[in-house]
Amino acid sequence: MVVAAFSDFMQQIVSGLAAGGIYALLALALVIIHRSTGVINFAQGEMATLSAYIAWTLIAHHGWNYWLAFTATLAISFGGGVLIHRGVIRPVEQGSVLRIVIVTIGLLVAINGFIVWEWGGEPQLLQGPFGSSTYDLHGVVVSANDIGTILVAVAIVVLLWLLFRFTKIGLALRAAAVNPEEARLVGVRVTWMLALGWGLAATLGAVAGMLTAPAVFALDPNMMAPVLIYAFAAAVLGGIDSPIGAVVGGLLLGVLLNMLSYLSQYGAFGWFTEELRLPAALLIILGTLLVRPQGIFGKPEVKRV
Amino acid sequence: MTVLLELDGLEARYGPVQALHGISLTVAEGEVVAVLGANGAGKTTTLRAISGTVSRSGTVQLEGKTLRGGPEVAARAGIAHVPEGRGTFVDLTVTENLRLGAYTRRDRQVKDDIRRVTEYFPWMEERRGQRAGTLSGGEQQMLALGRALMSRPKLLLLDEPSLGLAPMIVREFFRIVRELNDTEGLTVLVVEQDARIALSISSRAYVLEVGRVALTGSSEELRRDENVRRSYLGY
Description:
The complex is a heterodimer of chains A (305) and B (235). Chain A is mainly alpha-helical and 305 residues long.
């Protein structure tokens, strides 16, 4: 009984990390855009859904190999993100951030409408690349899909870290985001850096979308709505301007929500049912904003007088 | 002497307020030129108009070519502008600040140049990984200068480098600027509130008054002229 409980517990941790990895990717996308544009991109979830539909079309209708479709979708999403910035965000960038927020909400509605118009509202099946097999590791049963999801999320985070840390373009992206005026003085073309940031965010979203569809067993127009809320909670928890915070926040949230579900089976938190996962995420957002508004890894905002 | 920078009838405005009313000025290659004047005379705006940080009319020519566009264009043309109030990337490390200074360069000698620049500021060596925001005011000003040097500029614009710094640090800062001019032939246009120190390192100076050039001459002359000192330079 104790052994069974332990392996069950470990399984919940692994699947929590897999879900958390997806939240982390989408939270990173939110953080990248918040740092550079100063707003929450409410369309981030729908952009990810659109990417997943593109991948599905390439695989199911055109018979592409999964990883080929994956790569192509990332490239298309990157271009799409850049275009969104150049086309609809940049024109409203001067002035109140509220204007950008409204544009991102408009984008959410527009992209969602486009998906239903193009592909219909019925759920489709986007197979993951990892199959549905499970492995038994000393009594802990883990699914290939969970392990694969974790590995992809880790790989993407590492690549992104390398880009920001060690490349000239990454340095320019950071400089343009935190200090645009200074960045222009050293010759950085800031508006292009912001567009690149949107491209990167869209690419991260694309990975999250493609990983979400197999995890929830259906590709449907609204599948990313809850994931966006979790990502938002993860970003706020970790610190809305902190990339590390987004990753840690995402993983923490994934594991935490799974733990609550797990414990409820054993009597503790017996009232915690699946329906309460989203409200729990909102509670985390609220709690973080009240107790530590800058999040775990955020620096408190200091305004120079 | 070849003229490096030439301003002709430069005007600039902040919304409805006109800050510059037709500034004309030249800087020759290898010169250190000071721009002096009271608060609000348009010193900072002159530099901002040169680098394109404010919208301007009139012409700015670098090596005979007219500059058009914002600060990215000026930076690519070879102008390094160290703005008022340090101008470092506070969230980035010392090394990252220096690397960003070389952003417009395509050559492979950036690493060597980081070494060369840190020779002027030995303290940077041990603190390469430190965030610029945690440096002292004087260190940040030195870092801003080091970052500007990393672009191998044709022209260095310095805006009020003495602001908020201890006299000893200010002297050290200007000593390094002087040395850069002597040994590397660096051309500098410096805006300063502290007329005494600016005149001591420059060869010529312009005195601005409400957005116009009120007088100009060699730094030596200006320093000697009692009237000028009293009415314009305040010491």
